[in-house]
Amino acid sequence: xxxxxNIRVSSTRxxxxxxxxxxxxxxxxxxxxxxxxxxxxxxxxxxxxxxxKHNILIDKTGQxxxxxxxxxxxxxxxxxxxxxxxxxDIVSKQFKGEINLGLLCYSPKQIALSNNEHQHLFQKIIxxxxxxxxxxxxIAKLKLDNLPDLNYKGxxxxxxxxxxxxxxxxxxxxxFLDQPLTAAFLLRNSIEQLSLAILYSFIxxxxxxxxxxxxxxxxxxxxxxxxxxxxxxxFQDQRLKELLKTSASDLRFRSxxxxxxxxxxYLHHCCLSFKKKVEPLLQKQLLQLKSKSDEKEIEEEGEV
Length: 304
What we know:
This protein has 304 residues and is an alpha+beta fold. The protein is built from 11 helices and 4 strands, in the order ααββαβααβαααααα.
């Protein structure tokens, strides 16, 4: 949860002429305000990277490509349909891919009526995040004060189940390599289940939309870890992106030969690499949750 309690900037090769985070916030908010009634916006994580290119034979002044990744909680009313994905897409296109958003979009009423785990997350963001637009919300107004303790056993059980399902899907996909559409569907769902386990173990959050790259983006923001390089880059190849979009509707209506056996073999390799890199991080987090669960039981026994 440290990534939520401290605004984090991860920056490489940032020059003095680079755009500041405040400028980025201001530009993003102005775009968002054109598309929704926004009451407040909190940033709970961001990452910045600038690639410098210089070749004296081509361009003596050099070139800069700066990229920002922002994680925002938007609180407002009358969100447009599919706001989480559509607003992120609008901002990405407006800034030609230089600024990308991972969004949580909720009304005050939805926050107040959300489950206990989600309320703990919203409370942490509002208390410790960076308010980039609007007036600070009162915790009591959103019914986020005096929250019950987290149900650690329930969180652990959910995450372990997601991990078990992910492993089963990944294993079974190898039986369908000669049916690439089916294999792609299984592999896509394997990554989804693993992502859901990561999100719920670290921030106890059930997302309300399940686009793979949205899930991976939230995972990267919420469980940033210095010991590993986050493996989202495994899936940046355009062909892999197409494979990871495979849905149940594709199985019903699309041609079975849109992907090749080699395509899904490569995706399977990337999925295995992803699981190998993030599973130790997930298991470590689950051990910490189990420790908290044991401590809670000891405290409850002492109160009896």
